[in-house]
Amino acid sequence: xxxxxxxRRVMGHFATGVTVVTSRGADGVPLGLTVNAFxxxxxxxxxxLVCIHRGASGHDALLESGHFAxxxxxxxxxxxxxxxxxxxxxxxxRDLPATDGPLGTPLIPGALAWLECRVREVxxxxxxxxxxxxxxxxQAHPGEPLLFFKGRLMGLGG
Length: 158
Hints:
There is one protein chain. This protein is of the alpha+beta class. It has a single domain (4-153), classed as Pnp Oxidase, Chain A (Roll), CATH 2.30.110. The protein has helices at residues 4-11, 59-65, 78-86, and strands spanning 16-17, 19-24, 30-35, 38-43, 46-53, 67-72, 99-100, 106-107, 113-125, 128-140, 147-149, 152-154. The strands form 3 sheets. It has a 7-stranded antiparallel sheet. The chain is globular. The relative contact order is 0.23.
Protein backbone atom coordinates (compact mmCIF):
# COMPACT_ATOMS: atom_id res chain seq x y z
CA UNK A 1 0.00 0.00 0.00
CA UNK A 2 1.21 3.49 -0.83
CA UNK A 3 1.32 5.87 2.12
CA UNK A 4 0.88 9.63 2.17
CA UNK A 5 4.58 10.33 2.73
CA UNK A 6 5.70 8.05 -0.10
CA UNK A 7 3.15 9.63 -2.43
CA ARG A 8 4.33 13.14 -1.49
CA ARG A 9 7.95 12.18 -2.05
CA VAL A 10 7.22 10.79 -5.51
CA MET A 11 5.05 13.78 -6.48
CA GLY A 12 7.86 16.06 -5.33
CA HIS A 13 9.83 14.87 -8.34
CA PHE A 14 7.41 16.74 -10.59
CA ALA A 15 8.61 20.35 -10.76
CA THR A 16 5.79 22.88 -10.62
CA GLY A 17 5.48 26.60 -10.83
CA VAL A 18 4.45 28.47 -7.69
CA THR A 19 1.39 30.68 -7.58
CA VAL A 20 -0.54 32.73 -5.08
CA VAL A 21 -4.28 32.43 -5.61
CA THR A 22 -6.10 35.56 -4.45
CA SER A 23 -9.69 36.69 -4.01
CA ARG A 24 -11.80 38.88 -1.73
CA GLY A 25 -14.05 37.85 1.10
CA ALA A 26 -17.65 39.06 1.34
CA ASP A 27 -16.35 41.88 3.55
CA GLY A 28 -13.98 43.02 0.76
CA VAL A 29 -10.87 41.95 2.67
CA PRO A 30 -8.23 40.43 0.35
CA LEU A 31 -7.33 36.78 0.84
CA GLY A 32 -4.69 34.58 -0.69
CA LEU A 33 -2.78 31.33 -0.40
CA THR A 34 0.19 29.67 -2.06
CA VAL A 35 -0.85 27.02 -4.58
CA ASN A 36 1.19 24.83 -6.92
CA ALA A 37 -1.72 22.73 -8.20
CA PHE A 38 -2.58 24.92 -11.19
CA UNK A 39 -2.88 24.17 -14.90
CA UNK A 40 -4.47 25.33 -18.11
CA UNK A 41 -7.46 23.30 -19.27
CA UNK A 42 -8.91 24.76 -22.48
CA UNK A 43 -8.35 27.42 -25.12
CA UNK A 44 -12.01 27.57 -26.18
CA UNK A 45 -13.30 28.69 -23.79
CA UNK A 46 -10.25 29.93 -21.84
CA UNK A 47 -10.20 27.72 -18.73
CA UNK A 48 -7.73 26.98 -15.94
CA LEU A 49 -8.01 24.95 -12.77
CA VAL A 50 -6.64 25.24 -9.28
CA CYS A 51 -6.85 22.71 -6.48
CA ILE A 52 -7.30 24.10 -2.97
CA HIS A 53 -7.43 22.16 0.28
CA ARG A 54 -10.96 22.42 1.71
CA GLY A 55 -9.53 23.29 5.13
CA ALA A 56 -7.32 26.12 3.82
CA SER A 57 -7.93 29.63 5.08
CA GLY A 58 -9.94 31.48 2.46
CA HIS A 59 -11.25 28.36 0.71
CA ASP A 60 -14.92 29.05 1.43
CA ALA A 61 -14.64 32.82 0.91
CA LEU A 62 -12.99 32.29 -2.48
CA LEU A 63 -15.83 30.05 -3.63
CA GLU A 64 -18.43 32.49 -2.32
CA SER A 65 -16.78 35.44 -4.11
CA GLY A 66 -17.18 33.77 -7.48
CA HIS A 67 -13.80 34.97 -8.77
CA PHE A 68 -10.10 34.55 -8.15
CA ALA A 69 -6.71 35.41 -9.59
CA UNK A 70 -3.75 33.14 -10.13
CA UNK A 71 -0.52 35.10 -9.61
CA UNK A 72 2.49 33.26 -11.06
CA UNK A 73 5.45 34.12 -8.86
CA UNK A 74 8.87 35.08 -10.15
CA UNK A 75 12.10 33.64 -8.76
CA UNK A 76 12.69 36.68 -6.55
CA UNK A 77 9.31 36.23 -4.81
CA UNK A 78 10.18 33.23 -2.64
CA UNK A 79 9.36 35.35 0.42
CA UNK A 80 5.79 35.82 -0.86
CA UNK A 81 5.38 32.09 -1.47
CA UNK A 82 6.36 31.49 2.15
CA UNK A 83 4.25 34.38 3.46
CA UNK A 84 1.10 33.14 1.72
CA UNK A 85 1.64 29.56 2.88
CA UNK A 86 2.82 29.97 6.47
CA UNK A 87 1.88 33.39 7.77
CA UNK A 88 -1.37 34.06 9.59
CA UNK A 89 -4.00 34.68 6.88
CA UNK A 90 -4.83 38.13 8.28
CA UNK A 91 -1.17 39.22 7.81
CA UNK A 92 -0.57 38.03 4.26
CA UNK A 93 -1.38 41.33 2.54
CA ARG A 94 0.29 43.54 5.17
CA ASP A 95 2.40 46.22 3.45
CA LEU A 96 1.75 44.61 0.06
CA PRO A 97 0.52 47.22 -2.44
CA ALA A 98 -1.75 44.89 -4.42
CA THR A 99 -3.68 46.29 -7.36
CA ASP A 100 -7.08 45.10 -8.55
CA GLY A 101 -7.77 43.13 -11.71
CA PRO A 102 -10.83 43.74 -13.91
CA LEU A 103 -13.13 41.86 -11.46
CA GLY A 104 -11.66 43.56 -8.39
CA THR A 105 -9.47 40.64 -7.42
CA PRO A 106 -6.20 41.61 -5.71
CA LEU A 107 -3.14 41.05 -7.89
CA ILE A 108 0.34 40.44 -6.42
CA PRO A 109 2.71 43.25 -7.40
CA GLY A 110 5.69 42.17 -9.49
CA ALA A 111 4.25 38.74 -10.32
CA LEU A 112 5.62 37.06 -13.43
CA ALA A 113 2.06 36.69 -14.73
CA TRP A 114 -1.55 36.84 -13.55
CA LEU A 115 -4.85 35.41 -14.70
CA GLU A 116 -8.14 36.65 -13.31
CA CYS A 117 -10.98 34.14 -13.45
CA ARG A 118 -14.66 33.64 -12.74
CA VAL A 119 -15.46 30.42 -10.90
CA ARG A 120 -17.17 28.26 -13.48
CA GLU A 121 -17.44 24.89 -11.70
CA VAL A 122 -16.22 23.25 -8.51
CA UNK A 123 -15.60 19.52 -8.19
CA UNK A 124 -14.76 17.45 -5.11
CA UNK A 125 -11.26 16.01 -5.21
CA UNK A 126 -10.57 14.12 -1.99
CA UNK A 127 -9.53 16.68 0.63
CA UNK A 128 -9.35 19.42 -2.05
CA UNK A 129 -11.77 21.36 -4.22
CA UNK A 130 -10.94 21.35 -7.91
CA UNK A 131 -11.94 24.81 -9.10
CA UNK A 132 -12.45 25.42 -12.80
CA UNK A 133 -12.09 29.09 -13.69
CA UNK A 134 -12.92 31.00 -16.86
CA UNK A 135 -10.15 33.48 -17.64
CA UNK A 136 -11.42 37.05 -18.09
CA UNK A 137 -8.08 38.86 -18.00
CA UNK A 138 -4.39 37.97 -18.00
CA GLN A 139 -0.97 39.50 -18.39
CA ALA A 140 2.64 38.27 -18.42
CA HIS A 141 5.95 40.02 -17.74
CA PRO A 142 9.58 39.11 -18.43
CA GLY A 143 11.45 37.18 -15.76
CA GLU A 144 12.26 33.76 -14.37
CA PRO A 145 9.65 31.59 -12.61
CA LEU A 146 9.78 30.36 -9.04
CA LEU A 147 9.68 26.55 -9.00
CA PHE A 148 8.88 23.92 -6.38
CA PHE A 149 10.89 20.69 -6.62
CA LYS A 150 11.60 18.01 -4.00
CA GLY A 151 10.23 20.22 -1.23
CA ARG A 152 12.36 23.24 -2.15
CA LEU A 153 11.71 26.57 -3.81
CA MET A 154 14.20 27.39 -6.58
CA GLY A 155 14.76 29.02 -9.96
CA LEU A 156 15.44 27.30 -13.26
CA GLY A 157 19.14 26.93 -12.48
CA GLY A 158 18.44 25.10 -9.21
